[in-house]
Amino acid sequence: MKLNIAIVGLGFGAEFIPIYQRHPNATMYAICQRNVEKLNAIGDAYGIDKRYSSFDELLDDPAVDAVHINSPIPNHAEQSLKALRAGKHVACTVPMATTVEDCMEIVRVTNETGKKYMMMETVVYSREFLFVKELYEKGELGKVQFLKASHQQDMDGWPDYWPGLPPMHYATHCVGPVAGLLKLEAEYVSCFGSGTIREELAKIHNSPFAVESAHIKFKDSDLSAYVYRSLFDVARQYRESFEVYGSKKSVEWPLIEDEMPVIHTAKKPEPEIPELVVVPDYAHYLPKEIAGFTTKGVYDADDQQHLSFTQGGGHGGSHPHMVHEFISAIVEDRDPFPNAVQSANWTSVGIVAHESALKGGQLLPIPDFRAI
After folding, report:
1. Which residues does UniProt call coiled coil (predicted)?
2. Taking CA 250 as the corner, what is the angle to CA 365 and CA 348, rounded to the nearest 5 degrees?
């Protein structure tokens, strides 16, 4: 079975083109970009004939089976809903939406249409997450007791909708792994804001906080998780971290990029408890045609070097894993991971957490998206 895929948004989105071109169950059918010059440059470079500068015209094409949306954050919900209603399967980069109401509507329309929706959360397909997941599934962690994650980034100078963004409004990179490891559902959250960003940034979204840190309680579980985010006026190298504490073993993320994570093993002599580990790659999970995209490499470098599309090396090698999951879910007629309900839960944690921070840490519930 071959699915006709259309990619919407060709900045970050262009990185996925060669992966879909090589996936055994996909045809890289069409691309969509408002900027016609950029649309044609990328279409020419990758040999894609079907090109749309209008999203609505793309959706009118009956040959399109699925769309992969990589447009700016404010467009995610509107475009996902339009595509689902047009009878297309949807993969969308994070976050799912910017309001809880839009998350609810996407879940409702996904249920109504029977189409697949997958939020393309990179962290739960990174080699680091897959490594921890493998340890958990083998029983090596023992009973999981606590989960923790962070996403810190200096976003000064970023364009459009980024300046002054509330930290927790872009929280899925740290919420996804703490919820996703054991497939837990966030039930309620308490979040504190800390510090203040520059006034010219704070007034854009009426969001003063330099850091937002949240505790998440999971439904039907004895577990909670701690996540924290910063975007402006905090000195920190870029870091997406994910840490798990178990009764037998715990895994801690490196403090500095390109260093090694640490595994702590219980009941050893104190100096022997910590051990630096090399995280393996998980290309063997993938069809051979796209396995190479988990590590760095420029596609067809001689002809297309000027495009500088480095494949898969970023985001922990997750890109081909996400593509494979999305395609496989459609072919096998099953829910992808994360599906619409999980995506809504993870996205809403951040939205509700920011609301909690504005209310001084008030405990607030996450809607039950399964009930929709």
Report:
1. none
2. 20
Give the angle subtended at the CA of 248 by the CAs of 225 and 183, to the nearest 5°: 40
SS3 of residue 9 by DSSP: coil
Closest by CA position to 345, among listed 184, 133, 123, 117: 184
Inter-residue contact 126 to 349 (CB < 8 Å): no
The tens digit of pLDDT for each residue in 251-279 reads: 999 999 989 999 999 999 999 999 999 99
- Domains of the chain, each with CATH number or no CATH: 3-120 (3.40.50.720), 123-333+348-365 (3.30.360.10)
- Report the distance separating Cα 356 and Cα 353, nearest Å: 5
- For residues 246 and 142, the answer to whether their CB atoms sit within 8 Å is yes
Burial 337-350 (b: 16+ CB within 10 A, else e): bbbbbbbbbbbbbb
Beta-strand relationship, 211-218 and 224-230: antiparallel
- Max CA-CA distance within the chain? 65
Provide the H-helix boundaries in 5-99: 17-22, 36-46, 55-59, 76-85
What tens digit of pLDDT does each residue of 7-20 get? 999 988 999 999 99
What does pTM read for this prediction?
0.95
Residue 244's φ and ψ, nearest 5 degrees, are -130, 130
Residue 78, classified by CB atoms within 10 Å of its CB into exposed (0-12), middle (13-18) or buried (19+), is middle
Task: Name every residue whose Cβ is closer than 8 Å to that of residue 59 and which is 6 or more positions away in sequence.
Answer: 67, 82, 83, 86, 88
